[in-house]
Here is the input.
Amino acid sequence: MNPKILILIAILVLAGVGIWLAIQTEKATQPEISIESGKEEKPEITLISVYDNYLVDTKLKTSWGFATIIKTPEELILFDTGGNSEILLSNMEKLGIDPASIRKIVISHIHDDHVGGLKGFLERNNNVTVFIPSSFPQSIKNMITQKKARFVEISASRKISDSIYTTGELYGPPEEQSLVIDSKKGLVIITGCAHPGIVNIVRRAKKLMGKDKVYLVLGGFHQPAISCIKEFKELGVEKVAPSHCTGDLARDAFRREYGENFIEYGVGKVIEIR
Here is the structure.
């Protein structure tokens, strides 16, 4: 074959690969978001625990890790994927949640008990966008694109969906993002492991959203000092649902202090915010 034709073919192939990678990957370079209160209707929100080491529904399986479904009238978002995709997918099936119905996945941080189930999930459904901290290693990014899914790197805070925002990467270590939902009843803050400090995350969310009312803080609190309960009260946190890595001592202390505003969160728990 003519050498000039071979060179032209090679250039076209390389250009095609570059375009495909650009489509699969988006670098989040947005500045800090600015929220204008009251500018959009607040949706009804349902939170469903699909992976945790605490158990609510005995038909489901537990394992060390965390994953929660955020259901809005428009979509389902999966926050973290636990450590084992078989357990994650099994629990979702028993709860009547079709993996194909999910179009967005948010991963809080790099630890395997939060990202370990991602590969297996993408083998079931790769028609998703995965929002990952920008500090994630190239190996994870390569895995996502190899499964023909798309990822967005998160560094700064930004909008994920209607009334749902990421705090952006906060330093722990490791770097971690949490979600903030501007719900009908106030801010709902969802954490994976809260390595940056659960109180710091609550403060960050309030500053980010420009709002004082925190209706619920949910997720792993990373074995906080008991003194954080007093700080929660000072920050106006109305309800708490600590799970995963919070630790039994801290959970018991929250339970005693919050009483009926303490929510027992674990696999199978459903929280409706209307």
